[in-house]
């Protein structure tokens, strides 16, 4: 009787231990964007949720990628203190003071990003460099630094007018209170499509900046970074993923 009980308990232990050993590990995935296409949409059809869903499926039960919005300051605290391990999506090494990519484990490029210069179609501004904005009212977002442009702002040659969001700047532009504004390409395409504004805005053929958007992984998640890099070629062939990129005018 006692031997049977011991055997039963041991068998149950083996089952539980085996289940735990096979359980997927949760990977915290952070985005500090609160507007499309990188914000988390309740419907789950945004770029962040879709990427997490695809990576979870491709991991074969090893990892569950859990997306979460966090303010940039909170993410900075986690990274600096090491209090949490996770991934930061849509990042660039320069934005996290890691030009040499040694502080964190960085993925390969996920998508290209660009900061577009936008004006009204009936008063177009073709951007060739900061000088092309001289004498104009330029819409910025408070707290953002614009390379080259801010130098001319300081010199009094560009009038920079800040709001708290890209959408507010677009409203000002369309009501003739700005001559030009800067906005990331993904956000621009979302706003234009939502408001049917394609006939009203002019996008300069030259962006202010073009850059790579990568995934930052804390050092303890280097193995997850390696897995992501291995999946990127197949990700770019995924129909759902490519459809979303095209929707927002983005390229892998």
Automatic annotation (TrEMBL):
Keywords from the UniProt entry: Signal
Signal peptide (UniProt feature, chain positions): 1-23
Keyword check for Signal: yes
Domain of life (superkingdom): Bacteria
The protein's name: ABC-type amino acid transport/signal transduction systems, periplasmic component/domain
Organism annotation: Hahella chejuensis (strain KCTC 2396)
